Amino acid sequence: MFQWDENDFMTNKEKAIFLLLGINFTCCFFAKSLFVVFGEFIDTMHATQWILYFMFALNSCCKTLSVAIGRKKLFIVLKDIERIFPQSLQERRDFRLAHNYSHIMRHAKFMSIQHCSIALMFISFPFVQSTLEYLTSDADNAKFVTRTPYIMSYPFDASSGIGFIVAYVSQFFGGFAVSCYFVGSDMLLMCTIYLVIMQYNYLCWRIENFKSQNFDKDIKEIKFILERHNLLNVVAETVNEVFSISILLNYMISILIIVMISIQITKGSDFNLDMIKFVGFFTSASTQVYYICMFGNLLMDSSLRVSESLIGQEWYWTDVRYQRMLVLAIARAQRPSHLTAFKFFAISMESFGNLMTTAYQFFTLLQAQMEQV
Q1: C-alpha distances in Å from residue 205, one per residue of 215, 218, 219, 284, 312
Q2: Which of 94, 248, 337, 361 could bond to 342 as cystine, CB 3.0-4.6 Å?
Q3: The pLDDT of residue 6
Q4: Which helix (H) or strand (E) holds 206?
């Protein structure tokens, strides 16, 4: 999707794997969609499971499409960030590169391990459950009950024989692919935004350590600050343009996913492996939204801190002409960069709280309706 330079290319093996995973995911998505037409839900809990799985896959599709559509803009953004990235050892120390790298890697590893663990749990759970039931059964004619990870409709018998093997293997790789699409697009957003946050923080450090020397050097410094700040604002706005629609869809779909998971936990599952699976899914869905809101909040805070740093620097030792330019710089820095849900609202920790509150309200309403039935 991104060719960084002339030496960066996919091998034929990588292209084949990417293509096969994409085809398999597409087939699984259609098989899941066709269950509404050709399948039959056992009960309400079965239907809520299908909604949960379908919305998660749909969310992954939306995120991946947003990256695919906006890949040229993202490529330009990343090249701009690479151009202003610190080169010398001293610049990297001032930039706190080692600290920032360890910070983002810690969050990225946690998110990757969590999502991969939940995906593996969902994929392997039906086989593990059937195996345990078969091994612990006291009946002489005990049979291995075939179960698949997800609710899909096939044009062949997927309950036994080669049909079951094909269905299970297909869902195994389909579930793995959808998890990679889901967490991969989120991590791309988080890492890109954090690169911008790092640049804002470096800009603040440079402003706060400013010492007036003479008019020419002071003007050169404020010119650098204005140009760098303007570039960071453009970069942040471009990233927001690419991801804003997917963020809005992710926000709405996440509410529905959290509600459906809560219904499964409270109504459909005893305290067993099935409940552990859905509790893990609930944690994963909540964490994913939390991280996006957290990095959106960090972006706003770091961009606003530029204005505070400009106000707090030793401007009173500078030339009057410098002070006049500083007023313009402060005014421009008081408009924070932010992520938005397609211009409806800014993404922050407040929006995360609103999401969880809305999900809880829908959950209590749906739970009340189910109790009356």
Answers
A1: 21, 16, 18, 35, 12
A2: 248
A3: 64
A4: helix 161-208
